[in-house]
Write a structure and sequence with these properties.
Layout (H helix, E strand, L loop, with lengths): L18 E4 L23 H17 L3 E4 L16 E4 L2 E4 L8 H13 L5 E3 L10 E4 L2 E6 L5 H11 L3 E5 L12 E3 L5 E3 L6 H10 L4 E2 L2 H5 L6 E2 L3 E5 L3 H9 L3 E5 L2 H4 L10 E2 L5 H5 L33 E5 L2 E4 L4 E4 L2 H4 L8 H11 L14 H11 L4 E5 L2 H20 L7 E5 L8 H5 L4 H4 L9 E4 L4 H7 L4 E6 L15 H11 L3 E5 L23 E4 L11 E5 L1 H4 L15 H15 L2 H18 L6 E5 L5 E5 L6 H10 L2 E2 L1 E2 L4 E4 L7 H17 L2
Parallel strand pairs: 1-2, 4-5, 7-8, 10-11, 13-14, 18-28, 20-21, 20-22, 22-23, 23-24
Antiparallel strand pairs: 1-15, 3-4, 6-7, 9-10, 12-13, 16-17, 17-18, 19-25, 24-25, 26-27, 27-30, 29-30
Helix pairs in contact: 10-18, 11-18, 19-21
């Protein structure tokens, strides 16, 4: 039998940010059979299941949704199907009471997790019910399945606890033993479902309640195509239900296909792995646990300093132990919203599942050869990165400072070999307030006394001019000038955005005088400002880009110089190198980062959230804040000096669970991971408002 959907007029669908709980399939296997999908004789690839699960989680996070992780337990392979663990709605959380003894202990474990994470009150029903497997919330009512797992009488218990009407639906096909296998909620009014899974009376009821529902075919249902998750616009679903996918798209939904075939061996799909947490107080979602007294003061018995670490940093007194997404947890279990993002190195969030999966897979293959041999990862990485930057070649290195040093060497070599500058006479023009690293050559052209003083003699060959002053740069260029090195937006200086005509004029000067334009995009690039490269905001293309920080995905140092062949081609074997530069592990991680950026969603996310963040920050001007600068999810904030230094403000923010970093004077900067949510931004700005409002 083949069923088709009635025509559904496409409309503009609106997404709503969601919060989910998921349990990784660390112990997943099929060792028993409690539904028709399970066959203990079929081998299970746990590593593949983990990789597919990580892809699902990364998809949610890339859409802006927040994912909490529930720890898996040995001997409970079906715990990965987190939707069965309970129902969370309207400030109430109901832990499951499972029908089969094989899954029975999961109910207690999920109840404990709900309670431990502030999702109370936590209720336990008398009757059997398996959470969101059989209870699907749509608008102000709950659709409830019965017939195989959840008991009919338990529907009344759930209604009494939540105060919402519960609509009972009888399931009759054992393949669709849970409601979420035969019906998917698309938004507050719409569903997709498979009528043969329901009794005649329930089919009639569904037709009455949802006359415009999308009706799945036999093949759609057999692939668990209805076991989907929707945020109202984006529908995350299996890649094995093409007809249902077409119907959803025709109805105005954006579908995202995920291969979860390994977990299907246990009878579960996308929705089975996803428990939505609804109606939770904002503080539970976006703030760290309440702490009496300063959150950053370690208790007695903990190290209060690092006596064996060179004192080249003055860190905030927070000792990180774990991190996930935009949050860091310290050694005492206190949570902090990371609004620094390791100076843009953690653009994609701490332990981004997609990047971690790539690194883990490569760790099991090969990590280092040196450049004495080729590796199968290097050329694909360099080709992808070159394409992302619209260039032809890549020089892979490790740290940002190495990339800048390498670009300087390339520029000088190009000046001698191509432009014809006399040997030893090459000049490179740099900007006041620059920060390109802390090597001897780089600090030689810094005007930051902390970075420069006491480290001479200095490397010659650099001319410094005021940042943002194209006329001064023009006056400084002579026949021996080989390059201009500039940050499109100065980061360490306080997120300084230049005048709109500055970078186009610099580009024109470089072209006119046969000078290379080097753009240091180590902090500003790779999505931070809402574009792949910050120069795109001014429609300017550099001759060389230096990249780093986010290129390593927050896992390891990866940097690069990217340029065309006529520039990077001046290097020959033996003239430049790095043992670790372009190693297979770095290439695998870097290639994954490039693939993520090629999709464009990260840049769009930074642009959209950046507009919101800057609007909120500008509201503080005149209320303790003097000025706000930046683009995308990058902001420099000048605080009224009488309220304290930037370091003082950062310490007070840390007491409230927000991690930021000062630059100079009373300036601090925000560069949160791009996985941060709008609600988390609001909470962080609220903390800053409290700090500058109560300081002094």
């Amino acid at each position: 039998m083949t069923l088709t959907s009635p025509a559904v007029a496409p409309v503009a669908r609106v997404a709503r940010l969601r919060t989910y709980a998921m349990t990784p399939p660390t112990h997943f296997t099929v060792s028993y059979a409690i539904n028709p999908w399970m066959d203990p004789s079929t081998p299970v690839d746990t590593d593949l299941a983990i990789a597919q699960w990580l892809r699902l989680r990364e998809t949610y996070e890339s859409l802006g949704h927040r994912v909490h992780t529930v720890d898996p337990h040995p001997g409970l392979p079906d715990m990965v199907y987190a939707a069965n663990g309970g129902l969370s709605i309207g400030g109430h959380t109901i832990a499951a009471r499972f029908a089969f003894p094989e899954r029975g202990p999961e109910g207690d474990l999920y109840a404990a997790w709900f309670h431990g994470n502030g999702l109370g009150p936590v209720h336990r029903t008398v009757g059997i019910q398996e959470g969101e497997g059989d209870f699907l919330v749509i608008g102000a009512r709950i659709l409830a399945g019965t017939g195989f797992r959840s008991h009919r009488d338990t529907h009344d218990e759930v209604s009494a606890i939540t105060g919402l009407p519960v609509v009972t639906l009888e399931l009759v096909d054992p393949r669709f033993y849970h409601l979420d296998t035969a019906l998917g909620v698309l938004d507050d009014e719409n569903i997709a479902y498979y009528p043969p899974a329901f009794s005649p009376a329930s089919r009639t009821l569904l037709r009455t309640l949802f006359p415009d529902a999308i009706v799945a075919t036999d093949d759609d249902a057999a692939a668990l195509g209805l076991n989907l998750v929707s945020d109202g616009r984006h529908v995350v679903m299996t890649d094995a239900a093409p007809h249902l996918t077409e119907l959803l798209r025709a109805a105005g939904y954006d579908t995202i296909a995920i291969d979860l075939s390994e977990l299907l061996k246990g009878g579960g799909g996308i929705k089975c792995c996803t428990l939505e947490l609804r109606g939770i107080d904002k503080e539970v979602l976006v703030s760290p646990p309440a702490v009496s007294g300063p959150a950053v003061s370690p208790p007695a018995g903990h190290l209060s300093a690092e006596p064996h670490v060179a004192h080249n940093y003055s860190p905030l007194p927070v000792t990180a132990a774990t991190a996930q997404g935009a949050w860091i947890t310290d050694i005492d279990g206190r949570r902090f919203l990371d609004c620094l993002g390791a100076y843009s190195a953690v653009n994609f969030g701490h332990r981004n599942p997609r990047i971690v999966a790539a690194a883990t897979a490569q760790l099991e293959r090969i990590t280092l050869t040196s450049r004495a041999f080729r590796s199968d990862r290097l050329e694909p990485f360099c080709a992808a990165l070159a394409a992302l930057c619209a260039k032809e070649m890549v020089l892979p290195m490790n740290t940002g400072a190495e990339a800048v040093e390498s670009a300087i060497k390339v520029a000088r070599k190009w000046g001698y070999d191509v432009k014809g500058v006399p040997d030893g006479q090459a000049k490179i023009i740099v900007a006041d307030g620059n920060f390109h690293g802390r090597t001897i050559s780089i600090v030689s052209f810094s005007d930051d006394p902390d970075a420069r003083n006491g480290f001479g003699p200095y490397t010659p060959g650099f001319v410094r001019v005021p940042y943002g002053d194209a006329a001064a740069m023009s006056a400084a260029i002579d026949d021996n000038t080989v390059a201009v090195l500039v940050e499109p937006i100065q980061g360490e200086a306080g997120i300084i955005v230049p005048p709109d005509d500055y970078l186009p004029r610099v580009r024109a000067l470089c072209t006119r005088h046969d000078v290379l334009m080097i753009a240091d995009e180590i902090q500003s690039g790779l999505g931070r400002t809402g574009t792949t490269l910050a120069l795109e905001h001014w429609d300017v293309e550099a001759d060389l880009y230096t990249l780093g920080k986010a290129l390593g995905g927050g896992i390891l140092p990866v940097s690069a110089v990217v340029a065309d062949r006529d520039i990077l081609g001046v290097l020959h074997p033996g003239e430049h190198g790095s043992t670790f530069g372009g190693n297979p592990l770095a290439a695998a991680v870097g290639h994954t980062v490039v693939d993520m950026l090629t999709e464009g969603t990260w840049q769009a996310r930074a642009a959209d959230l950046g507009r919101h963040m800057h609007a909120r920050l500008r509201d503080l001007i005149g209320h303790g804040v003097v000025a706000v600068r930046g683009l995308g999810l990058w902001a420099g904030i000048d605080v009224e000096p009488s309220l304290g230094t930037g370091k003082d403000i950062c310490l007070r923010l840390a007491e409230r669970g927000v991690l930021a970093k000062d630059t100079h004077g009373s300036t601090l900067r925000l560069a949160p991971p791009l996985v941060i949510t709008e609600a988390e931004i609001d909470w962080a700005v609220d903390q800053l408002a409290e700090v500058v409002g109560s300081a002094g």
